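Weekly structure sync, notes
Attendees: PL (lead), two postdocs, one rotation student
Agenda item 3: pending single-chain targets
PL asked that the sequence for the first pending target be pasted directly into the notes so everyone works from the same version. It is reproduced below exactly as submitted, 381 residues in total.
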Amino acid sequence: MAIWYGFAGQLFEAPGKLVGLANFWSTSALWFDLYFGLSVAVFAAAWMWLAPHPWAMWSIVGSAVIIFASYFQVEVAVAINSWYGPFYNMIQAALSRSAPVSAERFYGELLTFAGIALLAVIVGVLTQFFVSHYIFRWRTAMNDFYVANWSRLRAIEGASQRVQEDTMRFATTMESLGARLISAVLTLVAFLPVLARLSADVTDLPLVGAIPYPLVLAGVAWSVFGTGALALIGIRLPRIEFFNQRVEAAYRKELVHGEDDQTRAEPPTLRGLFADIRHNYFRLYLNFMYFNIGRIVYLQTDSIFPYVLLAPTIIAGKITLGAMQQILNAFTQVRQSFQYLINSWSTIVELISIYQRLRGFEAKMQGEPLASIEGRAEVAA
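Predicted structure, written out during the meeting:
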């Protein structure tokens, strides 16, 4: 990807602007498909020869398919952004009666969008079907590994939950976060040049004045500020989520023992275990309340932030409706890519707690001491 976007891709750029499905079978797009396929084939063959593994086909080639699907989704977003310009300029011309707009042209633009959307839906459905199998293969590999070492793992608290549930949750969450991270990076690579080009029409920013690449710099600064602030607010959440799973596992384990042993799962014992669950959940709710206050305030402000940046340009009438829509969409794509941590923090919290539980298995198998968090009763107040 770095070689293509840094050097090779520039050799096959199509002259002029492409709108609609032509984006996907242009010379540049077809050369990239061939280049990507050959790169994956060479990489997979080398890896399988140097380090053969029974899951290599799914882990290497399967990951490449998901990366390509992420790239394709970014290309769909670029194609739609290119469509915004002529379509909204046509709308502006029709409403202001500044130029004639025929019904054939209007419906033709809608059909162009429909073609892009239909292709995106087909590829998206097929990708989701493939990803479901990919995740289950990942879970199968982890399950087989832990079951083979079950005699050494069964003594760990909540061992059954970690094998039966955490393996699937880890594979699902990791794939989702990884795909979104790749998509965010590719979106930045694709849209930063677009936003930089569109910044030529925006000369001034409120309170700041004229600066080079104003929209790019403003988007980066705003996203970094939001990510840092929300990460700081939610810094305690991963540990609390870890202990939440521990108390849930202890309660579930006692109930399971009570099904076969009448001396287990007595009401006083269950009340004590459930009190631990309630205590930890209430603490989790309180910390999520702090986090959600910051997150919602930031995201609500975020929805009007690009309009604030464009205010001097809009008031001066320096851009058309189509150009404004292209700027807003490109700015949103770049901003959301930089906001990956903001949009994924709750999922990252869950992943960290799952990883910590599975890491206990790894330590047990390798004869290492368990992490200190495994022996703690609760999070410090």
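Discussion points:
- Residues 267-315 form the longest helix (49 residues).
- The two ends are 46 Å apart (CA to CA).
Action: rotation student to compare against the earlier draft before next sync.
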